[in-house]
Amino acid sequence: MGNGQTEHGVQRPDTSKADRRTTAVGTPKTRDPRSKMRTSAGHAARSCGTCALCCGGYLRLVVGDLIVDGAPCPHSTGHACGIYEHRPTSCRDFACAWLKPASALPGGFRPDMVGVIVLDHRLTWRGIPVDVLVVAGTPRKNFLHWSRKYAIRNHRLFLLQQNGLCSAFGPQEFLADVGARLERGERLY
Fold first, then answer.
1. Does residue 109 form part of some domain?
2. Residue 7 and residue 56: Cα distance in Å, rounded?
3. Is residue 157 part of a domain?
């Protein structure tokens, strides 16, 4: 695919400000570490603990009427939400993939522990789920290795967003489609 291709996919500069951050909305439901949420199976749900990467400027946030793109949410304390009890619906409805009750991500892969926020099944390509991995700092190598193996084993695709660049992981046709959309300046998710 030329100069922008990497070993594992297409990598093109993402020049529009809107595309430098994901379109995820808000902060996770379980922001409050005191939360006693339970999964449908009765097991204790995961909680954010001290992770606040979703509020740290890596994602494009819509917090009520406020759009925060490329900067930390003004309500973030750096370790939690300063208005958790009164947070907007958009924040209440958001959950990263690690928090979801049926998450395939291992317990030790909380976003602040691996340096990556995973937004699962943000879109599909030809009926195949596409996950979005947003790098927030320095990703642990074992996480990216695990993600590739998981994607292959489960017939999933992913986009990796890092420092304004987007890489794609999947078959050549997917890479070509992603590259073409980036060339046209389209949002991927």
1. yes
2. 30
3. yes
Section 35-48 average pLDDT: 54
Tens digits of residue pLDDT in 149-170: 999 999 999 999 988 888 999 9
Contact status, residue 35 vs residue 71, Cβ threshold 8 Å: no
**Position 4 in a domain:** no
Domain residues for 119? 11-183
**For residue 5, what is the DSSP state?**
B
CA atoms within 13 A on the CB side of 72: 13
Hey, what are 161's tokens? 């967003």
Q: How many domains does the chain have?
A: 1
In a domain, 168, yes or no: yes
Contact between 42 and 36 under an 8 Å Cβ cutoff? The reply is: no
User: Is the entire prediction scored with pTM above 0.85?
Assistant: no
Tokens linked to 39: 């999964």
pLDDT band at 173 (very low <50, low <70, confident <90, very high): very high
